[in-house]
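Tip: read the tokens left to right.
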């Protein structure tokens, strides 16, 4: 996904298209464009075109994604991939001083929308994250930026709305064809690609990962399966895509279940990881190393906090520290309420709990629409969910990124791309 800004005039060719980058100055009255948008209260409201607002020209699509994530999955490192994909949101939130800006987690990467005025810092943050992911997890993170105004000049469109998930978390909902083009621009691995942060970049601002946590065991499905779906509409335009999206969402309710039934997280199934399997990874992110005194001290701190949390949950202990104003014994409630198990960015992405019969029925429904040429889809079946958490201490906002274990969205995306490729042959 992407992350890079160009303040000098240059161009980059992609197929028959030519994107011309131009000098830009921040427009102060658009800097808080997203912050003051009204928030929708129901996911079903995203199908109404009038709820969307055009993203300003001086905003940018920032994309990160793990290169060759399937190899890491085969080697049993999908949690590392999830972490590499998710930590950008935490670092940017700490720089911004809030988490109320557009970002979406994709399993092996992140898409963010940010104004020109903060790109000087975001480039530094992403450069440092890319280096950290490489040294600590052995993963290559692609990172770049594409300006929204430039995409509009190429005939692309990008709109968004804001959805209130809980008092702790607002989710951005995106629509339009600009994201696909931005992703293609960033994922071109030509060494001269101007949309990628160069290896020679000199970062002055270091990322702050305060609030990033990774302390829960994998969460077993309460219905037998945890499935990641990616569904991309293939109709004649945004309006017809949203009409088709309504049909799909209706069938989610009919075939898979209501929101409570399909939610992949159940409070009673969320358990603290005291084995060190995952919180070692948290210690690595915060200490910047997989060993040494700082890593050891961070591990010790996390272990003590984990024991306290586990004690509070098991005994309903009313004392001790609070997290974002919530008692430790109630912390699992916020994990469920502020999770991102369902989202829309031009594709419907969702991680759902289901049984095998309901999953098969839903796949038959999707396959029928696929054969009619109306949509593409991919899915990955597991028996448990992964959760990676980001809590912004200054604003009490938090989000809990959810995916299915052992490949999740990353493997679902491979199937989706295969269908799209086959349709062009």
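Filled-in amino acids:
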């Amino acid at each position: 996904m992407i992350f890079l800004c160009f303040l000098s005039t240059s161009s980059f060719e992609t197929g028959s298209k030519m994107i011309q980058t131009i000098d830009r100055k921040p427009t102060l009255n658009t800097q808080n464009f997203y912050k003051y948008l009204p928030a929708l209260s129901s996911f079903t409201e995203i199908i109404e075109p009038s709820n969307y607002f055009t993203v300003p020209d001086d905003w940018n699509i920032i994309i990160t994604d793990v290169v060759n994530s399937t190899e890491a999955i085969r080697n049993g490192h999908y949690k590392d991939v999830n972490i590499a994909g998710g930590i950008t949101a935490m670092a940017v939130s700490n720089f911004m001083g809030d988490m109320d800006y557009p970002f979406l987690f994709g399993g092996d990467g992140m898409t963010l929308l940010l104004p020109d005025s903060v790109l000087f810092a975001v480039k530094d943050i992403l450069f440092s994250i890319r280096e950290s992911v490489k040294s600590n997890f052995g993963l290559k993170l692609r990172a770049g930026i594409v300006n929204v105004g430039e995409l509009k000049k190429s005939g692309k469109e990008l709109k968004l709305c804001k959805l209130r998930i809980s008092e702790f978390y607002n989710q951005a909902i995106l629509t339009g064809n600009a994201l696909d083009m931005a992703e293609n621009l960033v994922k071109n691995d030509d060494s001269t690609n101007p949309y990628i942060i160069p290896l020679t970049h000199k970062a002055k601002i270091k990322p702050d990962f305060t609030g990033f946590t990774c302390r829960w065991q994998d969460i077993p499905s309460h219905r037998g399966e945890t499935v990641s779906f990616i569904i991309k509409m293939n109709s004649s335009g945004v309006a017809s895509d949203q009409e088709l999206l309504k049909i799909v969402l209706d069938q989610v309710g009919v075939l898979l279940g209501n929101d409570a039934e399909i939610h992949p997280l159940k409070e009673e199934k969320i358990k603290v990881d005291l084995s060190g399997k995952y919180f070692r990874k948290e210690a690595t992110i915060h200490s910047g190393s997989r060993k040494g005194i700082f890593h050891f001290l961070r591990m010790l701190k996390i272990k003590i906090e984990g024991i306290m949390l586990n004690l509070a949950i098991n005994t309903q202990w009313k004392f001790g520290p609070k997290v974002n104003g919530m008692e430790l014994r109630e912390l699992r409630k916020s994990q469920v309420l502020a999770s991102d198990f369902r989202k829309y960015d031009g594709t419907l992405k969702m991680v759902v709990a289901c049984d095998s019969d309901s999953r098969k029925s839903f796949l038959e429904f999707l396959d029928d629409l696929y054969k009619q040429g109306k949509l593409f889809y991919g899915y990955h079946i597991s028996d448990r969910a992964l959760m990676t958490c980001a809590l912004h201490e200054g604003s009490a906002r938090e989000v809990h990124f959810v995916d299915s274990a052992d490949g999740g969205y990353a493997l679902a995306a491979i199937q989706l791309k295969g269908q799209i490729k086959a349709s062009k042959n």
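The longest helix spans residues 293-315. Residues 317 and 398 are 23 Å apart (CA to CA).
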